[in-house]
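Continued from yesterday's entry.
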Amino acid sequence: MLTVKNENNHGVEELLKNKMNELSESVDCFDRISARAFPEEDEDFSESGFTISDLENVTGKARRIRVVRWIAAAVAVVCIAVIPQTNFANNILSNIGSGSVRKNYENLISEINSETQNGDYLISDYPLNYYIQNDVLVTPLFVCPFEDCGKEDANVRIYTRQINGFNTNQVYAVEYIGTYSEENIIAAAQSEYTFSAEDITYAEQYSTDDFNSYSDCSYAIVQNFSTDSDGLFIDDDGDSLSLASFVNFTLIKYDGGIIPVSSEILYGHKTMSDDSYFYDIISTSENKKIQINEREKSWKKSVYFNDNTAMPKENHSIFTKKNLFNGDLSEQDNELMFIFSFKTDYRPEKNEIINVYSEASDIQLSSIIVPYDDFALSSTRLYFSSLALDGDTRIIVKSNKQSQSVHYFDTVTIISDEELEYQKYTEELIKKEEARIYEEQNKLGSAE
């Protein structure tokens, strides 16, 4: 807040306070952003931002300094009262005072614009709160680079460089309010990795055959979890678990070179508690396990429009890292079954829960969130033990949001509940007709 320590200027002080209050009510995410943009400990006209924490009349100071300060305050009032909420307004506010230049943010926005106009990028948008909570499902190799601003209409746009259709670990992200436009951007982030023209030419040699096929998750499940009398996965406390996995193929800048990396993400949670998940990631290249950069260290910078950091101090993801890929996975017995794969035209909703049942016993085998990304979903496996089927060969999978049922054995097919009921009705009619024909044939045989 702008304060004026001068009793003779009480009216000016009230004017500045009122204008700042109006700004805090109208600017999206102001409460959180102001904590970054206007830190209390900063001195007047801070070098790190555009903070003006005090305007004092001090006896003996040059009149010229007082005039400059009051001009700066007046300009701030004009900006607050008149200039609309755009990057232009942010430019003026952030450059009040000496040394306040937003080089990092402005250069980063310029780089994003240049890269996305001239390069091949996959662009995806997510609500900020969804990304924060489900970062493992969105960017498995990166945490969310933005803190929670407390606004429901805050969103994130992610730009992932692609080469020959494969994602790389050169990633950008921007946080914006409401509908996407450059004027609505309030923060930007950049990954630690950049592909040069030479890197791109080298990476273009890789194809699908260069990525390892994944199979370690099944072994890790058998190694880490047991089953109860109903054949359900359980943890050490005896609580039933739901488990799933998906794969991430990425061309990664690694140890001075570029390599194709297959990352398997195994995750799960206690079935009766949907608000907390555990996960682990194993990455391999050329059939060898490799240690890639930690997710928390994959971002180079994340800054607000005034160059103050936008990186969260704490990770508020509902996914917690757990060591699941340990020991010699290849020596584990594997008698698991899994649902794979979803139809290519199936599009889940964000936070959609998939429920898996054994049709014969009506036992719930799994209840778990699935990735929203097309490629991640296409490689998603929903695991269950063969012991839970008790000889049954039919699985029912239902969504908690789309009022659809999935009939499965080898592949998952999405059909409506009405279609499922009609299918069952048709099957019953066929069985009755077959029984009638069989009975008539027996009668004819007896008569002969």
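--- second protein ---
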Amino acid sequence: MRNFFALLFLFFTVPILAQSKENERFVFGFFAGLETQSLGVQPLDTREPEKAAVQSGRLGMGTSVGILTRKKIWRGLFFQPALAMSYAKNQINFRSEGIRTFRFLDAELPVHFVATNWRRNDFPLRGCIIFGGRMGWNFAANPSNLLKITQERFALDLGLGAEIKVGRWRLQPAFVYSHGLNNLHRIDDAQYDEVVGKMVRDKLSLRISVWNIGK
């Protein structure tokens, strides 16, 4: 929890540091996306995952929506933080209790930088690279007697996309891979604590962002 608020402080201070040009302004937009999420479970009771007491299921599906702000900080380099809500669910197979569904309703703060080819600023289509990180907090309740999962999530993001110019509007379809950094398994008094090691969440999203550059 302390790390979460530390990163939250960083999220709001970085835009101030990023204002390297007084003549550049922030623009605002929104985005929506489809996501797939994998929930990795490390078994401690066997070296063969198919024989483990706890097994992660197939990829989970989900969606995300949010708002973003964007500011040019150098040639072809933009600072693009956002505020997002995402929902996904995954299944975990327990040896004796069967399949249980774990849900993730996350409030997320992605902090990204976007690099484009500044020499092609007037082109209607140009590629972009997205990189940065995010922090999130899961508000969904999950079964805690079998396995407890922490609510916070920290991740590194990397994406590839394109920026499409439509008059004063910009469209940015992109694939963004989010690699989970922190261990989600919270050891307490759950039934399967002794046979599970680390747990991580990785996400791949297809996201479309839209913003207006104004006059």
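The helical segments are 2-17. The first strand starts at residue 27 and ends at 43. Will compare against the first tomorrow.
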